[in-house]
Every structure is written in structure tokens, then in C-alpha cells.
Amino acid sequence: MRGSGDGRGRRAGLAVAVVSLLLALSGCAGAGALGASGRTLVIAIVSNPQMEDAIALADRFEEANPGIRLKFVSLPENQARAKITASTATQGGEFDVVMISNYETRDWAANGWLENLQPYVDGDRAYDGGDFIPSIRESLSYQGSMYAVPFYGESSFLAYREDLFAEAGLTMPERPTWPQIAEFAARLDDPESGVSGICLRGKPGWGENMAPFTTVAHTFGARWFDENWNARLTSPEFRAAARFYVDLVREHGQPGASSAGFAECGTRYAQGQAAMWYDATSMVSTTEDPSSSEVVGKSGYAPAPVLRTPNSGWLYTWSLAIPKVTEDKDAAWRFVRWMTSKEFVHQVGGTFGWNRVPPGCRLSTYEIPEYRRAAEAYAEPTLRGIDQASQQNNISAPVPYRGIQFVGIPEFQDLGTRVGQQLSAAIAGRITVDEALRQSQEYARTVGEAYQEDR
């Protein structure tokens, strides 16, 4: 069977218990306050370039919606997740709108923590909910209704410097394999010139190094749990994937790899200090941004490398949801609608440049002439990656969980981060891969046994 198992009540209770402590420590301010000129919506958002563009355009929303003021709580991903999870799970009411992903949406909807947005979507023909990319829309739906709407969507692919490949006499295959990528990285690694063969995340975190690594593990034939919730982190397949990943980044990756995440790899690649970078398709907002990138127009974009599976790219979306306890849901929806609308896409493109448009969300975005010109190198690989991302294409054996680059259970926030710490320590050379996996297996075994009790 594929997808998450039963025991939802136990998992909901566990989530509340875990995040209650986080909430006590987070010190969130109250939401829905009355400002000097009307209502203030408090919006919890993840800090990255696309979200920062939205914050910069917020005055346009306020001008068009007199009486509504916006207050953003913008935090790095790991911190934002802790605050948002804590507040939403305990129904604390600190935020009127929250940024979540397809990892959380279905379980949170089933737990009754989120407002059903389908009536809002269906009641606004101009909003055009049918314009969302189908796989993205489905990943944010529970029992046929959307409980979050996407701000941007992504799969993963490989960016590579076409100029460096040409100089070295190398050709990127249409469907590269990981062994081929390792060979290219060895050929292109040039420490004397400050150019690493590849950049891969080593920074610990279930949403940091575990995202790319889990896609590698799956295409190597590994899985976190078998269909009976037995932990499989010391299996031959998982061990082979971990050794490959650690060896590749240690031998031909970036300096300080154990502490490098998406942002650090993005900076390094954009500054011309890496020949390849495997990561989220949303990287193009960094790699193709003339204001900050030195490699604009020099990159090719290949599908996520594979080994045993037809595909290896992930499926992920940052989206906006309204907690069930939000008082003024109509005002909250007006903001959510604005930030996820077709009009917003044009506002971003016209203000910051079309390479900064939130990608992988609306089909109509890919029909805009200006965007098509700006995204010529990466639009089609992005759409193809999102369309082909499925467990059937990406995982070679049955698993009891949903997700491709994550395990879709509440405990994975903790489990994935713990395993990520072990992998990061192996990259840093503080422990061996086998030591990392033995400890990781114990973490996973405890989680798996709890699900076995629910069967």
C-alpha cells in the first residue's frame, strides 16, 4: 500500500503534545488585532526570495483593500515550521494566514486545524482554481477539497554549467544517472580555481539535506520503512545511497558542505563556484537573476538523476492556508487570493523581472510571452519534473507513507532532522556512514513500532 497508514487520532494527539512545548517557547504575538485604521492580518511566512517579493508588494494589497493591514512574521524555514506547527496544532490563533506545504496540508485538514478553502475557490470564477497544475492541486487537497492554495510549486532537477561542460568536452545526457554525475563532478572539480564539481545540501534538517538525499535513496532502491513499518535505514540499498551521497559531497562538493543548505548552495552556484547543483526547480530565481547571479544564461537544466527508477524529482509546494480559528476568514481569504492569483504573477513579473515569478503553480504562467522568453531554459524541465513526480515513478518498492522527498507522517519533522544530523556528521567526517545509519535506524525503528501498534 502507498500513503499514510491509520492511527490518525494518535498522530494528531502526538503532534499537539510535541508542539505545545514549541508554542510555549516561541512567544508568538496575537493575530487579528485591530490597528489604527482597521484590521491587521498576521501572516506567518517562510523567508526566501519569492516570499520577500510578496512582502515588498504588500502595500499594493493594502491600497486595494482599505481597512486591512498586513503584518508578516518572516522566519527561516526550520524556525517558521516550528512556530506555524505549534500555533496551528494547538489552535493558538497567533496567525491569521500560515504558509505550509503539501507535507502538512492533508493531515492538518483531517485533524480539523484548517479552513476548507474550496468554497472560496469555487465561488470566484476569476480566481480560476482549475488553472493550478493538477499534481500540485491534488497534493493540497483532502477528500476532494483544497485546504491550502499554492504560492509556488517545484520538483527537483540538476543545474549544470554548459560552458564548463563544453570546455571539458563533456555532454550532459538527456536522462543522467547518479554514477554519471559523480564522474562529471570528478572531472570538473577544480579547487585551485574555487570551483567544486557539485553542490549538494549537507545542512541537517528534514527539509534541508533530507530532501535531496531521500530522492537519492529512493532511486537507489531504498525506502525509509517497508510496507509493514519496519525501519530500513541499514538496508543495503539505504547504505549504498548514503555512502554515495557522502562520498560525492566530501570528494567533489563545496567547502563546508556539512553546513550548506539550499541558500548556501544557491549563492555558491550563482557566484560561479560550482559546476553542478542538484536541488529544487525554484533555484532558477537565484541562478537566472541578473541582479545577483554571475552565471545567467550559462546553465542547462537536466532531469533529477536516477539509478533504478524512471524518475527521481520531488514534488513540493509552499502554499497558504487559513487556520480554523482565524476570526476574520473573509479578510484572510482576500489576502490569500491576492498572493496566489494570476494578477500577482503579473505584478511580480512587471516589478522585479519575469525570472522572479513564483514558478510551478499556475498553468497560465507558462503561457505568458514575457515569462516564456525569460524561462526558456528551465520552464519545460520544471513542468516535466512536476508532472512526472509520483511514487510510482520514484520509489521501486511499496511503502506505507506518502511523499517522495519526505515521509508523510507528523513524526518526520523530528525523525528526518535527527537522521539529517547524522548524515551531516558523516559529511563532516566526525562519524562514519555506518555509524550514522546505525543510530538513524534506532530513531526510525521507534517511530515504525508505534505505527505497527496501530495496525
TrEMBL record:
It comes from the Bacteria. This is Sugar ABC transporter substrate-binding protein. SUPFAM superfamilies: Periplasmic binding protein-like II. Gene3D superfamilies: Periplasmic binding protein-like II. It comes from Saccharopolyspora cebuensis. PANTHER family: ARABINOSE-BINDING PROTEIN-RELATED (PTHR43649), DIACETYLCHITOBIOSE BINDING PROTEIN DASA (PTHR43649:SF12). CDD domains: PBP2_TMBP_like. InterPro entries: Bact_solute-bd_prot1 (IPR050490), SBP (IPR006059). Pfam families: SBP_bac_1 (PF01547). Transmembrane segments: none annotated.
